Amino acid sequence: MKPVSPLLLAVVGIALAIAGWSAAVLIVRYGMATPVLPATALVTMGVIVALTLVLGIRVLRWRNGKKKKMLNPILAAWTLVLAQACAYTGAMLLGWHAGIFLDQLRFWSIRSGLDVTWLALGMAGGGLVMIVVGLVVERFCKIPPEDGETDASKGLPGHGRGKAKGEGEYAYRGD
């Protein structure tokens, strides 16, 4: 499995920011409610972030040798997939709600109730937290390089043993 590309996360976020802004402009023009998630979604986002962190810390503790018991490879794979899904979902939520927030700034001085504006900003912040946690936990799932091992490209030509088998791979590998 390939690591999450921050560039791809940025592209997803920007594309959904444009979509969110466009949707907010059109919906407000026709007198409909602004398309922002309810405040209870922040609780759901918090549960997802907490679960991702707990599972990621379990993988990190095993990777750093603080656990004697073998890590279940299926659990490690699920943790990696959850971390990547958390990062992509966070990028989508951040982009969509940032676009809505930018649209709501037009009404900042006109409107007395700014609940939708603050809600969109809170959802965008929650999306940012999801991105950060997803990327951090994804890094927890990587197997660190072994001591004494060097990459052949960093030394003199013909010296060094190259990468160890499994080095730089994800922790769910069974080798």
Automatic annotation (TrEMBL):
Residues 164-175 have a biased composition (Basic and acidic residues). Residues 146-175 are annotated as: Disordered. Keywords: Membrane, Transmembrane, Transmembrane helix. Coiled coil: none annotated. It comes from the Bacteria. InterPro entries: DUF3180. The keyword Repeat does not apply. The chain crosses the membrane at residues 7-30, 36-60, 72-96, 116-137. The keyword Membrane applies. This is DUF3180 domain-containing protein.
